[in-house]
Amino acid sequence: MLKKCVMCLSLALVSCTSAPEPTPVGMVQERGFTGFASDQVLRVKLNFALTSEVWDFSAIELTIYKGRVLMTGIVPSEQTRAEAIRIAKGVSGVKDIIDGMNIQGGDGLSEYTRDAWMTAKLKANLYADYEIDAPAYLVRTFDKVIYVFGTAETKEESKRVIELAYDITGVRKVVNLIEVKGVPQKR
């Protein structure tokens, strides 16, 4: 009972520190509630560690899927980026860090709008393709780089998802973070 109370309290605290992932039902089913909750608890730990040691953590966005942490956003310097990664690697439960952060520059509203459009376009394309289990994927775009998390039923499905991402106008790079059922993950 105590374990359930701690988990519920941790999930409640997530909304105080940063917005939890908008997670499709398929992804919760794939990870299970425990996996989803573990990622949210990891978010709380990361937020605490980063806010304790990084001066301006607010510009770093965290996307967490099965203990893999994607860090995106604009940071003021290479030193801040390196420090944020070092801190995140030291948090228990972090399996992998994917660095998508940029050094502060000229990104503005139009860049953020473009990235949101790319994410929406890929999600729409996934849902339009009946051979793809669209709710099983989490898509994030930052600086024209599309990051795709999820679990594919087959290698062909995974390949199709990545092809759809590359078909989007203006995409600079696609980072494939898709797991395929029954295929061991490289670490």
Task: Provide the descriptors you would attach to this structure in a database record.
single chain; 187 residues; alpha/beta; Histidine-containing Protein, Chain: A; 2 domains; 3-stranded mixed β-sheet
- Compute the number of helices: 5
Rg, rounded, reads 17 Å
Shape: globular
Low-confidence stretches: 1-21
The overall pLDDT average reads 82
Lateral arrangement of strands in the main beta sheet = 1-2-3
Taken together, the total number of domains comes to 2
Number of strands: 6
Describe the 3D structure.
By secondary structure, this protein is of the alpha/beta class. It has 2 domains: 2-103, no CATH class; 109-180, Histidine-containing Protein, Chain: A (2-Layer Sandwich), CATH 3.30.1340. The protein has 5 helices and 6 strands, in the order ααββαβαββαβ. The protein has helices spanning 2-17, 25-53, 78-89, 109-128, 155-166, and strands at residues 60-65, 68-75, 96-103, 137-142, 145-152, 173-180. It has a 3-stranded mixed sheet with strand order 1-2-3. It is globular and about 45 Å long. The N and C termini lie far apart (34 Å).
